[in-house]
Design goal:
With 232 residues, the protein is of the alpha/beta class. It contains five helices and eleven strands.
């Protein structure tokens, strides 16, 4: 069974993703809103969190460093830290992420990769203590990989936290169970800036249905919205 997937995001009133471009408010600062978002992250009590490649690249901060000798690598999975309290999971179909350490915020890192990633990259991840799961095909089978994540890592509740394309892919595949949205008193207004969910030209109009679970003030002018998601 796949984990219960909660898309947990922070957004301006116009649905934009990057706080660096948001307007100001006398009700609170971007730092305070970020603190509320992190507090809600903890309260949602996930067994791990998952992000796309671009989002993870902002945190990974590594450079390519394949080992001199690749040796034999497991083409299916490498999970050096089973049973952790929480995991940091990244989607990286092409094997472009490199890491400066094996954990983020104390959470062991696990990378989900496409089936054509080279052995040298798998060897680099394994040498760094990074876990990985490899898809059967070149493209990521998100449903199968979620099930594998649940089975191999014991994850029952997973927080999906961006970016826009990663979120959109999970919504389009009918895999998101819930939305947790921190709505901030700010506007962005820039053209061409990512929203919190992007699903290509076809969008999500005929793919999901949302119903309100709760709406509560979360401090500093923010609202915490929760919605149940049903695929159509």
């Amino acid at each position: 069974m796949k984990p219960h997937l909660v898309c947990h995001m922070i957004t301006s009133l116009d649905g934009r993703l990057h706080p660096s471009g948001w307007s100001r408010s006398p009700d609170g600062t971007r730092a305070e809103w970020s603190g509320i978002y992190e507090r809600l992250h903890e309260a949602l009590d996930g067994d791990g969190w998952i992000v796309g490649r671009v989002t993870m690249a902002e945190m990974a901060k590594g450079t390519p460093h394949p080992p001199a000798e690749t040796g034999t690598v497991d083409r299916r999975r490498h999970l050096p830290v089973p049973g952790a309290a929480s995991y940091a999971i990244a989607l990286d179909r092409g094997g472009k992420l490199h890491f400066a350490g094996s954990t983020l915020g104390g959470d062991p890192v696990v990378v989900v990769l496409g089936g054509d990633v080279p052995d040298s990259h798998l060897a680099e991840l394994a040498a760094d203590g990074i876990g990985y799961l490899v898809s059967d095909g070149a493209e990521l089978d998100l449903a199968a990989l979620l099930t594998e994540i649940g089975r191999q890592l014991g994850i029952r509740r997973l927080l999906l936290e961006g970016g826009a394309n990663a979120n959109g892919a999970f919504f389009a595949a009918g895999l998101v169970d819930e939305v947790s949205l921190l709505l901030c008193p700010a506007l962005d207004g820039r053209t061409g800036v990512s929203t919190i969910v992007e699903a290509g030209d076809t969008g999500l109009a005929d793919k999901v249905e949302l119903s309100l679970i709760s709406c509560e003030p979360a401090g500093h002018g923010t609202l915490h919205l929760r919605y149940a998601v049903r695929p159509l």
